[in-house]
């Protein structure tokens, strides 16, 4: 059987073609997903193994991507830690009692993954069994990616109470209440490690840490308030022996530091040309990115043109995984994702 081009690219080994998958590839751009959403809310979908597995497989059937990502949400471990929250349609996560004090942090319990997240293990087992079956693995194996939100991004929801533009509350805690900040980051780091190791033990074949909103920080603040925790997570995951991806948006100001963690792959958003990212990251790590998801709303000719630009800027495709700079937007015509996947596979 052939090898996975996605896994090989993570380790900068030769691949048959450029591997591609899309952040948020499972979701509202797919009619079959929207149909399921008519009768199930997002958290029910995530916590019902048969349904979560089905949604994880939808983009494999539709797009022919080279990797699947577990259908879950970065809020799931927080729920297991006892945080009361909702995921509100078109807004995102809303925390009922945002973190304000050390007592609020102390109240969050540690995850007992086999007990609290048994549904996740079951989902992973169902997806892996399907992916390993003849239907999906005929051409090449399709690995399953697990993921977690990073401590900063989780802390930003916990402190802001929901999505934010300015991140003023979370920064205020960082600057004015460092003891509270570090207590929260320590607790989140410990639990993110447990959560990601549990996914690896349950069968995921790569892990991505999403620090989606950390780009709101200055370089100095990233180094002081976030980087030590990200380093700790990646060091703890080394023993899983599966590729580790570090992703965030808006990292140009501190890409050297962001890429300095012990990982195999660095995810880049659309703001920085990949040739420049390659120079900063160096030759020893794979790069994942970086088409602006908004371009997928346009037309196939423009999508191809912008994709060609990315490949030209990148130069060598050794250790390269094509992806978007951030998640698929809900209004994306899914036909565009089919055309883009086919186009990348001709390269
Ligand atoms: O990539 C995939 O296909 C796997 C599924 C996935 C979801 N959430 C499902 C989901 C992944 C990888 C996530 C991660 C996630 N969740 C992140 C980090 C990635 C990123 O985009 O930066 C963040 C910040 C969240 C928190 C969150 N959950 C947001 C901001 C939203 C969107 C709210 C909205 O309605 O636009 C959610 C809800 C959510 N999680 C949806 C999906 C498919 C959409 C809502 C729904 O279908 O009801």
Structural overview:
The longest helix has 25 residues. Helix 10 packs across helix 12, helix 12 runs parallel beside helix 14 and helix 17 packs across helix 18. The chain starts with a helix and ends with a helix. The chain is of the alpha/beta class and 347 residues long. The chain contains 18 helices and nine strands. The strands form two sheets. A seven-stranded parallel sheet has the order 1-4-5-6-7-8-9. It has a two-stranded antiparallel ribbon with strand order 2-3. It is globular, with a radius of gyration of 19 Å. 49% of the residues lie in helices and 11% in strands. The chain has one domain: TIM Barrel. The site of coproporphyrinogen III (CP3) has 22 residues, from strand 3 and strand 4.
């Amino acid at each position: 059987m052939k090898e996975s081009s996605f896994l090989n690219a993570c380790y900068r080994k030769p691949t048959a073609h450029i591997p591609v998958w899309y952040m948020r590839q499972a979701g509202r751009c797919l009619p079959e997903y929207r149909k399921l959403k008519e009768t199930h809310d997002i958290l029910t979908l995530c916590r019902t193994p048969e349904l979560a597995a089905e949604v994880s497989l939808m983009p494999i059937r539709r797009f022919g991507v080279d990797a699947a990502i577990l259908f879950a949400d970065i809020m799931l471990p927080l729920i297991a830690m006892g945080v009361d929250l909702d995921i509100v349609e078109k807004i995102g996560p809303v925390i009922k009692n945002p973190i304000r004090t050390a007592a609020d942090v102390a109240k969050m319990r540690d995850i007992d993954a086999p007990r609290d997240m048994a549904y996740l293990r079951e989902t992973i087992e169902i997806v892996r069994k399907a992916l390993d079956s003849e239907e999906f693995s005929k051409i090449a194996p399709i690995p399953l990616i697990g993921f977690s939100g990073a401590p900063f991004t989780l802390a930003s929801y916990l402190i802001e109470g929901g999505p934010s533009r300015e991140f003023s509350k979370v920064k205020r805690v960082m600057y004015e209440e460092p003891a509270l900040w570090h207590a929260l980051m320590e607790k989140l780091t410990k639990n993110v490690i447990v959560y990601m190791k549990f996914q690896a033990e349950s069968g995921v074949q790569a892990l991505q840490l999403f620090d989606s909103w950390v780009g709101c920080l200055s370089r100095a603040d990233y180094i002081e308030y976030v980087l030590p925790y990200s380093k700790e997570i990646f060091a703890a995951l080394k023993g899983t022996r599966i590729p580790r991806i570090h992703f965030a948006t808006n990292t140009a100001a501190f890409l050297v530091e962001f890429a300095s963690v012990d990982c195999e792959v660095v995810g880049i958003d659309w703001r920085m040309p990949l040739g420049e990212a390659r120079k900063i990251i160096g030759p020893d790590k794979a790069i994942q990115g970086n088409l602006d998801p908004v371009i997928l709303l346009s037309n196939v000719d423009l999508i191809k043109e912008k994709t060609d630009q990315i490949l030209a800027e990148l130069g060598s495709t050794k250790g390269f995984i094509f992806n978007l700079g951030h998640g698929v937007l809900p209004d994306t015509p899914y036909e565009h994702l089919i055309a883009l996947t086919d186009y990348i596979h001709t390269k």
